[in-house]
Amino acid sequence: MVAVAVSLLGVRRLCRVLLFLSQFYILSGGGSLNLDLSQPLAQSIKDPGPTRTFTVVPRAAESTDIPPYVMKCPSNGLCSRLPADCVECKTNFSCVYGKPVTFDCTVKPSVTCVDQDFKSQKNFVINMTCRFCWQLPETDYECSNSTSCMTVSCPRQRYTANCTVRDHIHCLGNRTFPKMLYCNWTGGYKWSTALALSPVCCCSITLGGFGADRFYLGQWREGLGKLFSFGGLGIWTLIDVLLIGVGYVGPADGSLYI
C-alpha cells in the first residue's frame, strides 16, 4: 500500500510540473506564436485587395434651347411668306437691278411651313425684286432717330442712322446698314404756342415784349435781352413774329415743332 501511495504522489507531482510547463509555454513562446499566426489572418481580412476605379462619363445633355428667330416665324404658314430671318436663300448678285428674280430657299431648323396645298415643305422658290437692302424705299426699313442734331438750321443737318429692313421684305446684302438722314425729331414744342406768345397786337403784346416766346423755346439769353430792352422797343418783337411765323426760329434744342 505504501508503494502505491508513493507512486500516486509521484504522478500527481508530475502532472503539476506538466501543467506548469504548459502554462509557461503558452505565456512565453506559445502565446506569441499564436499571436503571429493570427496577424496574417487579420491582415487578410482588413486588406480589401486591389481597388478598381470607375469613371462615370456624364451623358451629353440634349439641347432644348429654341433659336431666337423661331419667335418671328409663324407655324404652318406659307413658306413663300415667311420673314427673311426664317429662311436661307441662294442669292445671285449678278441679277439686273429692278428686275424680278427668283431664288431657291430653304427653311431654317425648327421652322415649319407649308405650300399652296398645305403640305409640309422645306425647299421652295421665292420671287423678289433685284436690289440691295439699302436701295429699298423708305417705307421698307426702320431707322434710329437722333436727338443731338439741329433740325432748324441752314443748311439742314444730317445724321448717320442705323437702319434695319422690315421682317417681311426680301433684299440682297446686309439687312442692317447705315444711312444719312435729315434731322427730324421733336421735343414737344408747339409752333402755335410760340407764335401766340410773340404778337404785337391785342393782349399778348406785353408777353411778347418781355420775351415770353423766347423763354418758351428755351432761348433764355434772347429772352433776357428782350426782357430788359422791352422787346427792342417793339422792333425785336415784330421781327420775332415774322421769324417764328416762317419757322426760322425754333426750339433751342434743335427739334421740330409739333
From TrEMBL:
- Protein topology in the membrane: Multi-pass membrane protein
Note the coiled coil stretches, chain numbering. none
Where does the sequence pass through the membrane? 227-249
Q: Which residues form the TM2 domain?
A: 202-241
Task: Name the UniProt key words of this record, in alphabetical order.
Answer: Glycoprotein, Membrane, Signal, Transmembrane, Transmembrane helix
Compartments reported by the entry? Membrane
Which InterPro entries does this chain map to? TM2, TM2D1-3-like
Which Pfam families does its entry note?
TM2
Whether Flavoprotein counts among this entry's keywords is no
Main localization category:
membrane
Hey, which family's this protein in?
Answer: Belongs to the TM2 family.
Q: Any idea what this protein is called? A: TM2 domain-containing protein 3
Organism listed in the record: Ceratotherium simum simum (Southern white rhinoceros)
